[in-house]
Write a structure and sequence with these properties.
By secondary structure, the protein is α+β, with helices and mostly antiparallel strands. It has one domain: Glutaredoxin. It contains 6 helices and 7 strands; from the N terminus they run H-E-E-E-H-H-H-E-H-E-E-E-H. The longest helix has 21 residues, at 165-185.
Length: 186
């Protein structure tokens, strides 16, 4: 090897070692991993609310009472899968609102799974449900996907909700609720 090659090799090693030192990877509760303030893998609200700004966003949000009343009348069971970045301002705004809506609606009709990703937006968790994303990479975060009991997608919010989340949730599940009522009445 020439001196130039050795110099480039040394520089590469220093850069790689420096990046690893600047963003240490350590285990977080519930099997997630944290890199700095990034929570990676399956995460819980208990973990997220400890990240700066997330609890304040939850506390500040005031869901629409009329939309919550509609959500409380739901009889089906739905699964919500969220891909988020704990580092992302859109995630910090939308995900706490979603959690607040689900808490306020009550009833246990929604199950919530949240997966943290780094800046590559790639989900590195073997428990991530197949078919929710094309592959294992989100286009943008947060990506919120509402599924019926058979795993069929009913609706999706990517990055920013166009309407309040409580309104969108009802809009996503209302057709399924109507089908269920028709089926039960036959």
């Amino acid at each position: 090897m020439t001196r130039r090659h050795l110099g480039l090799l040394f520089l590469t090693i220093c850069v790689v070692a420096g990046v690893g030192w600047a963003y240490p990877l350590h285990a977080a509760p519930n099997g997630a991993h944290a890199r700095g303030t990034n929570l990676l893998g399956r995460v819980s609200w208990a973990q997220l609310e400890k990240v700066e700004g997330w609890k304040a966003s939850y506390d500040a949000y005031r869901p629409d009472p009329a939309a919550l009343a509609r959500l409380r009348k739901i009889t089906g069971h739905y699964r919500i899968v969220v891909v988020l970045g704990s580092w992302c301002s859109d995630s910090r705004r939308e995900v706490p609102r979603l959690v607040k809506v689900l808490d306020a609606a009550g009833g246990g009709h929604f199950s919530l799974e949240m997966y943290g990703v780094g800046h590559t937006l790639t989900v590195h968790d073997p428990s991530f449900p197949k078919g929710v994303l094309p592959g294992i990479k989100a286009e943008r975060v947060p990506t919120i996907v509402v599924l019926d009991r058979d795993g069929q997608e009913l609706g999706r919010v990517v990055e920013t909700a166009e309407q309040p989340l409580e309104t969108l949730l009802y809009t996503f599940v209302a057709p399924e609720e109507r089908r269920e009522r028709r089926w039960k009445s036959q």
